[in-house]
Amino acid sequence: MDSLIWATLVSLAPYLLSLVAVFLFYGQISYLKKKGPIPGPSLVLPFIGNAVSLVRDPTRFWDAQSDLARSSHLGVSANYIMGKFIVFIRSTEISHRVFANVRPDAFHLIGHPFGKKLFGEHNLIYMFGQDHKDLRRRIAPNFTPKALSTYTSIQQNIVKKHLMRWLREAEERPGKPIALRFLCRDINLETSQTVFVGPYLSAEAKEKFNFDYNLFNVGLMKLPIDLPGFAFRDARLGVERLVKTLGGCAEESKKMMRGGHEPTCLIDFWMQDAVMEEADEGVAPRPYPTSVEIGGHLFDFLFAAQDASTSSLLWAVALLDAHPEVLAKVRSEVSRVWSPESDAPITTELLREMKYTEAVAREVLRIRAPATLVPHIAGEDFPLTETYTVPKGTIVFPSVYESSFQGFVEPDRFHPDRFLDEKHDDRVYKKNFLVFGAGAHQCVGQRYAMNHLVLFIAMFTSLIDFKRHRTDGCDDIVYVPTICPKDDCKVFLSKRCTQNPSALS
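That's the sterol 22-desaturase sequence above. Prediction below.
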């Protein structure tokens, strides 16, 4: 019996090998046909493509794509990852063309190459047309001056608490540098949770929340294998639990707002508006998002605020240390409007007076854009240039990072004054500053993000003396998933002011 099976397999082997050869040949021809005239690897592995290279060293992978795009007058390059044909976009003009054509018959924002499976269906980034406009209109009350003022107070207290913790850790480890990446992540995670859902997340729920969010972060950087035991599956299930938790917070907030309570966090401002809309008997409102849908949108906010802000805080520290003349100007400006030893909080009005510090924050975001790529998928064939049409199903990657180094005078130089001087670099080359995106899906919370970064810079530089622990390659870029210094930004810390700011204790 065994010999018969073996003989059958031997006789079928040539046909099986032929089928494999045809499969490989078809995959290669399909890739080359989609690639057309744009630069990219000539040969790719079936299905997997160059996914291993991407996961192993994202920085090198995207640098190679950038070099290929730079070699072409089109400003784009091609590759193949996990069964997906991809196009990297270095050209700012083409990036704007993608951002301006987010609609069902053109490009769909996906946030991650396999984002819809990971983030879930109920997410702001996947919406189009009137539904998207209605949701953004309903989100708008979350970012009014009154709301931002409420958030600033929360942010300040949390930032101060963590900075004091950093100093205590530094005192316990004299002469040893402290890596800031996870410390900054903790600041942002607590800030995001407290600003977004405030009192509706218990201490126990926060622990579970942090655990699930870490699963999500790890899964973002792994191969998209949705099977038990793989990080991607753990991340997807973690997101489902996070969305459910945030949806429950929305329900609790709505009860409080119906009771006439004043908003204390973002979900309160949102639900207060929802209650007012429900009470408007003269208008037949469009269906309001369910609690689960709101939970999905809150998770979108959390992801945008958490990882991007962690990257920005780290690069702010690294760049200020590397440019002591900029640091001195920041400290001088902040000291004119706020003293860490005073009883005065930093209000949103005071933040507006810190014009140079805000320019520094903008330059940090320009030269080290946290989310370097904004992936979209082509819903239909689309003419990307006059000579190249991107095929349906292609994932395109407009590079926000590359755009930041185009147009600006001396783009490789860290020069905050470009956002202040009479040349108005920021206005002339506004189209190249794509950190917050462009078009219909431009970041709705960008003012909140800027306030957070300016506040951190003002408080960190006023409360703490710091010096980078410099080693070879410490400032090289790594993806985790947003970009940060290779050494996790190791610094020596010591107390700067003579006493703690009592108003924030």
